[in-house]
Amino acid sequence: MVGIALAAVLVSTSATINNAARFRDVTIGTLIVRNVLIEHQVRDEWPDVGESDGDVEIGGQEWTWEARVSETPDENIRRIDVTAFADERQAAELSGFLPKP
Asked: Which of 20, 52, 91, 92 has the fewest CB atoms within 10 Å of its CB?
């Protein structure tokens, strides 16, 4: 009986640790994609359509981000999709729009 209870505690603890790690990745990934999007929004330049990427270290972990700028039906607005990755796993994604300056 004690063995069954101990196994249940271990499974529960493992799930809690995994959930905490996932929550950390989503939180940091969201900060990264928001920063990249804000950097594009505050620049006073019209971004070229295409892709860019970068690396950043946060919390002792290497993160990668990718940004894709694309055209929209309105010729004065561009769309940007930014994704952050932790250890090649997608952690967060955010989309925004950039008006022509």
From this structure: 20
Angle at 14 between CA 8 and CA 20, to 5 degrees: 135
Q: How far apart are CA 9 and CA 12, in angstroms?
A: 5
CB 57 within 8 A of CB 84: no
In this predicted model, what pLDDT tens digit does every residue of 22-45 receive, in sequence order?
Answer: 888 999 999 999 999 999 989 888
Smallest CA-to-CA distance from 47 within 62, 55, 37 is with 37
Distance CA 82, CA 51 (A): 10
pTM here?
0.79
